[in-house]
Design a protein that fits this description.
D-amino Acid Aminotransferase, Chain A, domain 2, alpha+beta, eight-stranded antiparallel sheet, six-stranded mixed β-barrel
């Protein structure tokens, strides 16, 4: 399946410094677009990256029918373009679409559109450690009708952004017990735009208090930790890798799954289970807290240095070069750059 291409008249690449890339602020020359007309996906094409036109009555603006994904392509030292676990992003986007009452996207449109777009804008994939081409597929409702019901029409876009690291420093986080990210019967497991909108205000309040992000707790009791900001949450406590088990209120992170698989491969004891706030605080008081970090496509593995709770900041021990999170960070980086063998079959070579 080859999609028609409208080429940009003049590439923007010469204007971009690929050695200094803030996350998510620079966009490549082209984007992939496909439309759903109420019955089928039509008019799939690649065209120059540009603003889009929407009716002021578009359903996405009023009722929030929008989902997205995030993945990365890395340039190896051999100049190969390496894509990390795209099939998992595809599966998760299908699950999100079903939950938000949207049409699922045929695999050949998602995968072939993605690969042909990357091939066209291959020169936008930056080299260097910490750099990548971030890929953002997004699906949103386009019906120009005021009325609370699923839209009949949709647009699917894949855009790409050369980028550096999302987090450059260790994170200071606070346990949030007033606001919740999602309930067990809600949309927390879906990568829905509204989940992130609802997180903005509590995060802003935390940042005003000097923290970078929040640790979300369960909506029912606020006694169990769930996620941290835009990341899944992990701890090493007394030699065990512990992470909150997945539930309908949590996003099934692909980096999370990769880190767990890697830990088991290295024969580290892993526990996926409920993790209480009291257990986390007790681990600081009894000296068993060894590491705390977040995992995510954008964040990769982000070290947490401070966890705040009820006015007290608890300091996480600084990870050593041989700590699990640092070893996992190096391994994932080397696999994504093609520097070490991939025993899990995670990498797709695109050229």
């Amino acid at each position: 399946m080859n999609f028609p291409v409208t080429h940009i008249k003049e590439s923007k690449l010469a204007q971009i410094n690929l050695d200094k890339l803030p996350f998510g602020k620079t966009f490549s020359d082209h984007m992939f677009v496909a439309d759903y007309n109420g019955e089928a996906w039509v008019n799939a094409r690649i065209e120059p990256y540009a603003n889009i036109s929407l009716s002021p009555a578009a359903a996405v603006l009023h009722y929030g029918q929008a989902i997205f994904e995030g993945m990365k392509v890395h340039r190896s030292d051999k100049d190969e373009l390496l894509l990390f676990r795209p099939e998992e992003n595809y599966k998760r986007m299908q699950q999100s679409a079903i939950r938000i009452a949207m049409p699922t996207i045929p695999e050949e449109i998602f995968m072939e559109g993605l690969k042909q777009l990357i091939a066209l804008d291959a020169n936008w994939v930056p080299a260097g450690d910490g750099n990548s081409l971030y890929i953002r597929p997004v699906l949103f409702a386009t019906d120009a009708v005021i009325g609370v019901k699923p839209s009949q029409t949709y647009q699917f876009i894949i855009l790409t952004s050369p980028t550096g690291a999302y987090y450059t420093d260790e994170l200071k986080v606070v346990i949030e017990t007033t606001y919740s990210r999602a309930s067990r019967s809600g949309t927390g497991f879906a990568k829905a735009a509204g989940n992130y909108a609802g997180a903005l205000y509590p995060t802003l309040l935390a940042q005003q208090r000097g923290y970078d992000q929040v640790i979300w707790t369960d909506a029912a009791t606020n006694t169990k930790v769930e996620e941290s900001g835009t990341m899944n949450l992990m701890f090493v406590i007394d030699g065990v890798l512990i992470t909150p088990s997945l539930s309908p209120s949590k996003l099934a992170g692909i980096t999370r799954d990769s880190v767990i698989e890697l830990a088991r491969h290295w024969r580290l004891l892993v526990q996926e289970r409920d993790v209480s706030v009291s257990e986390v605080i007790s681990s600081f008081k009894n000296g068993t807290m060894q590491e705390a970090f977040g995992t995510g496509t954008a964040a990769n593995i982000a070290t947490i240095s401070i966890i705040g709770h009820e006015g007290v900041d608890y300091k996480v021990p600084a990870p050593s070069v041989d700590s699990f999170s640092m070893r996992a960070l190096r391994f994932l980086a080397d696999v994504k750059k093609g520097r070490t063998p991939d025993p899990f079959g995670w990498i797709q070579i695109l050229n």
